């Protein structure tokens, strides 16, 4: 009888967030997580990750490359079997979605 090591989903979630905090919006010196661009992160039993995120605007210059970068960096985690990014503009991003840390960094507080 073989024992499977259960992956702690909270631990995996924290690792995913850590990776997301290494990805920056090229126009704003704050990571995409603190900017509030990540709306949700789903992980299923097979450790496939789906990330629901937005961009600061539909005309964002990194609309093509940023989701691909997020996918690649999340896929690089050992415990992640696959990653997919879905872009949504509902609800549209506003500065209200930024963390206190991001607002402070940008002098908005």
Structural description of this entry:
Helices cover 27% and strands 17% of the residues. The longest helix is centred in the N-terminal third of the chain and has 12 residues, at 9-20. The protein has a single domain, classed as GMP Synthetase, Chain A, domain 3. Mean pLDDT is 90; it is low at 1-5. It is α+β, with helices and mostly antiparallel strands and 109 residues long. The protein has a 3-stranded mixed β-sheet with strand order 1-2-3, covered by helices on one side. The chain contains 3 helices and 3 strands; from the N terminus they run H-E-E-H-E-H. This is MIP18 family-like domain-containing protein. Residues 14-86 form the MIP18 family-like domain. InterPro entries: Fe-S_Maturation_MIP18, FSCA_dom_sf, MIP18-like, SUF_FeS_clus_asmbl-assoc.
Distance between the termini: 57 Å
Number of discrete helical segments: 3
How would you name the CATH homologous superfamily? Fe-S cluster assembly (FSCA)
What is the percent of helical residues? 25-40%
For the record, the count of structural domains works out to 1
Task: Please give the CATH architecture.
Answer: 2-Layer Sandwich
Which spans have pLDDT < 50 for at least 5 consecutive residues? 1-5
Please state the average pLDDT score. 90
Order of helices and strands: HEEHEH
CATH topology call: GMP Synthetase, Chain A, domain 3
CATH class: Alpha Beta
Could you say which structural class the secondary elements and strand pairing correspond to? Answer: alpha+beta
- Percentage of residues in strands: 15-25%
Radius of gyration: 15 Å
Enumerate the strands of the largest sheet in spatial order, edge to edge or round the barrel.
1-2-3
